[in-house]
Amino acid sequence: MGDPTAPPVSELAAATLKDSVPPSAKSLMDSFTDRVLVRTILSRPGGGADLAGLRVPICGLVQTGRVQGKGAFAFLEVNDGSCAADLQVMVEATVADLSTLVPTGTCVHVVGMLKVPPKLGAKQKVELHVEEVLHVGALADPAKYPLPNTNHPKKKPTPEYLRDWTHLRPRIKEFAAVIRIRDELGEATRKFFREEHGFVHVDTGIITTSDCEGAGKMFQVTTLLRKDEKQEKELPLAASPAPAKIDYSKDFFGQAAYLSVSGQLHLETLACAGHKVFTVGPTFRAEQSHTSRHLAEFRMVEAEIPNADLEQDMKCAEAYVKYMCQWLLDKCHDDMQLMAEHDKGCIARLKLVASTPFIRLSYTEAVQLLEDAVKHGKKKFEKKVEWGIDLASEHERYLTEVIFQKPVIVYNYPKGIKAFYMRLNDDSKTVAAMDVLVPKVGELIGGSQREERYEVLQQRMLEMGLPLEPYEKYLDLRRYGTMKHAGFGLGFERMVLFSTGIDNIRDVIPFPRYPGRADL
Amino acid sequence: MGDPTAPPVSELAAATLKDSVPPSAKSLMDSFTDRVLVRTILSRPGGGADLAGLRVPICGLVQTGRVQGKGAFAFLEVNDGSCAADLQVMVEATVADLSTLVPTGTCVHVVGMLKVPPKLGAKQKVELHVEEVLHVGALADPAKYPLPNTNHPKKKPTPEYLRDWTHLRPRIKEFAAVIRIRDELGEATRKFFREEHGFVHVDTGIITTSDCEGAGKMFQVTTLLRKDEKQEKELPLAASPAPAKIDYSKDFFGQAAYLSVSGQLHLETLACAGHKVFTVGPTFRAEQSHTSRHLAEFRMVEAEIPNADLEQDMKCAEAYVKYMCQWLLDKCHDDMQLMAEHDKGCIARLKLVASTPFIRLSYTEAVQLLEDAVKHGKKKFEKKVEWGIDLASEHERYLTEVIFQKPVIVYNYPKGIKAFYMRLNDDSKTVAAMDVLVPKVGELIGGSQREERYEVLQQRMLEMGLPLEPYEKYLDLRRYGTMKHAGFGLGFERMVLFSTGIDNIRDVIPFPRYPGRADL
To answer: What is the pTM of this model?
Structure first.
């Protein structure tokens, strides 16, 4: 078996395979590992058939395996995480104990010869004929393996089931594809901001003592609690005033501390020094949201642009979303094809968004359109539409999915429903805020021009009954050399939902955190 | 003043300057803002002199300003955050009230003509003569501005002082350079892992319920505490067993939750499915460390390599550090020059690390060398050196700074001082762990090959008195299709310290968190 002029297989099994495989195979080796990636083989023009005759090591997990020819040989579909496709691997019974190799989930590290399959018209243009088995990671008990038959269309585990197995979920092909798509969206984000537009990436603080008027309920971070001791005695309580309060001067940061709900304030300190900045922070909400679109821990891409107004903010947000869509079309063909098996429209959706100018609509115009739809009997909403309301998800989705069937940017919202820091428009009724709405998920981006006028900002805060003292540093940015600036935040997991067509946000993040669950 | 054939300046002040400035200036405009970046001008070959005659808008903060010519004009040094250099800006008294423009910290948005300075041999090859002032962000009270005279070498604020002004610190030139260097190190990280070596970036979980044998004391994350209410009544206490414990089934995640000290476990779940992965997570330590090298919140770059052993892990770590050093030499010339004003050796250090193979030394050899140094009277250590001790910072720095004067990788540590998950070597005394030590900071990277053998791992855990139950998922990775794998973590702020030569780790992160402080 094998080419007699090739070096003996035992040499290939030496500690560093890279140094011993023939040069042509060596050049294909995955860096820092003892394998050639399945992607490297199958992504070649011609599907890898040009590599026939090469001896290569591969390492991955068996997706399905079957013994054939009355026990003479076995076929394994092996996935190594590098791409959606499996490599077909043939092992003869003379080479290894086939029964330990075939269970789904087995890890195999093998060296073999790449050959063109004898069957004409085979799906794969090349398969591996094993010459030596370097390692088998067998299943302790195949009957107990939580993810059997993952390639069997009728026995595929449900997303709900897989959430109980987050430590094994990356072995599922569809989930691995989502991980790669996430990764590419992250790369597109950096390319767009850094390379295309000169933004600097900044790490904002995750733990914060700014207990400001925020976007949501906050998690508290503390070292005061002790899991296994008598707790009441442990909590330092200030003697007065009654009722007793916890004395946070004894806590780690000398005061109550929280997990950040947004990096905006931090980014503003940089933008107000002229820096174009962005961050991809983990952000947190301690709300009891049991929906398919909320997580307790998620990633938000936030950008802050010095010397910019709302118009430029909207331009930047639109360009960013388009860029990500085009990026996936360019870079993730195979993984997007896999997504399209569940959501046929997902690729067309990316194309639409990448190529169509977004609709721009003032809040006032949006409300008018929604009121007209109700008046003409086209649509009933749960929540009544009238000028001044905060648009609900049903309104947003009607605008983007039904009326326009494309992304819509709604801007100039009533000041009463928006945060104090958004810039007051000349009408004194609306603020320079904007939301980007897209089909499938609704609100994807929220942003605004920030109020840079010290007196106006202070006035707005007083109007809203906010105390000034906790915001002194924020006011400092306006007090000393103020600059117009604008920014926005994009819910990164919502972008993954939009791109992949996956239904539940818990399935587009490797380790989802939501009420009652923070596995691992 | 100005070119009579150019369009009237008032047109330049229109909302979107991009559409109205002459085409040649338009092509230089910073995207999504109303300015040309100072970097765009000064980084041109010839220092921007070729742009003389162009009318451009700029926007930034005055570093120093002085009125001259008996009040006829003022010179402003303006920095816009895009580079370390300021642009010299000249304003005549006929154009604006000079007294509001000159205070340090004032924001100016101006349109002017670029001209070659009349003075021969001037430091800058081009300066801006203002034609119209679009906006002035004046200082409410210049005397109260916390950062006056930042360009004055003798009046420069100290790093300690600046830590009290994290919201204004990005205006300090040296700090802005550190932010840009951080950004470039982050980019080098992604380029190295993703583009050069095919790793996938993964978001690991920040909040975790894994209360495992960890790298350090953990912060707790909770929604049980209430700042402003009577606390004892609020904490749900389980009735039994006595003494009363907090009932964490009532907490947000249904059990006690913490901030992650490492993404390793999460990355291992992916590596064990074949994925080459890395993350740049915020990680947390709730230790009362008041040193210049510890933070409560920091970034750790962690990589996990499937199908790899310790040798490949070390290769990857060395290649990564070298890559970052070369990247800074290639991309950050001006900012590194600024760093060299305080630490003359910083550029030479980058060159050394980028070009010299790292020393590889077993722990046993390292201890021998240190013992020899003591025996021969070359060095006294606070902590006695003998086989079996955990090397202290003084030992590590002696190895890398005195004995070898270059980076050193120490590997194969005694199992007694290392974590349970590190792979047991054949000698049964040492584990396949490694630390990368570099001059100036000591330990920069820690890593290991992970124990992939189920029985050996379980045996190690029992030896160390660890309960198996909380680690069942970790054991599952070995129980079902185990694969050899290895990984490491790099303290990102330590890499910034090493690169910049800055003394205190609190000054290389925009929003430092340490005992008693989490400003903003």
So the answer is: 0.94
